[in-house]
Amino acid sequence: MHNSKFGFTLIELLVVISIIGILAGLTLVSFTGAQKQARDTERQSDLKQYQNLLEAYASTNRGLYPVRTTATEASTLCNDNPLGAPDCPQDPSDGTRNYLYISDQTAGGTTTATKFVLWAYQEATSKYFVVCSEGDSGTTATAPTTYTCPSGL
Question: Does a structural domain hold residue 151?
């Protein structure tokens, strides 16, 4: 008489389940990092869109930008857009972070600006991505506080 056993032992099943759990955990951790990088890339693209919007504004307003002498949400610039942009980009995260804008104001009492700085917080690097009116862009450890482009960009 031939007596053979078919199937897996409890130990074999537990080993397979634990291996699957470890692989799933590693995948989830790397996926979260990839999501942060994707949102950061979207933020950089959005800031470049704002820069294009500001350049279009300046081209129809004697080379001058909208005045915001304190850090302001960049979405307020959509109201100043002479080209009638339908929607301003919004931050892809939970809405607690914003795209920010600040400009100078030239002397003489008129509301004219010749320089600006745009920035947004980057999740993956915990730094700020900055775009300046001079055309420079890059990351910095601290958020800008004036319209002067941060050094080292």
Answer: no
96-130 per-position pLDDT tens digit: 778 999 999 866 656 678 999 999 999 999 999 99
Give the chain's domain count. 1
> What pLDDT is recorded for position 85?
60
Identify residue 148 by its one-letter amino acid code. T
Nearest to 75 by CA among 44, 50, 43: 50
Q: How many CA atoms lie within 13 A of 65 on its CB side?
A: 28
50 CB contacts (<8 Å, ≥6 apart)?
A: 74, 77, 88, 89, 99, 101, 118, 131
More confident residue, 100 or 1: 100
Which residue reads 């304190």 in tokens? 70
Q: Is 80 among the domain residues?
A: yes
Distance CA(24)–CA(18), nearest Å, equals 10
Is residue 72 within a helix (H) or strand (E), and if so which, with residue range? Answer: strand 72-73
Q: Which residues pair with 21 in a beta bridge?
A: none
**Using the 8-state DSSP alphabet, how is residue 1 labeled?**
-
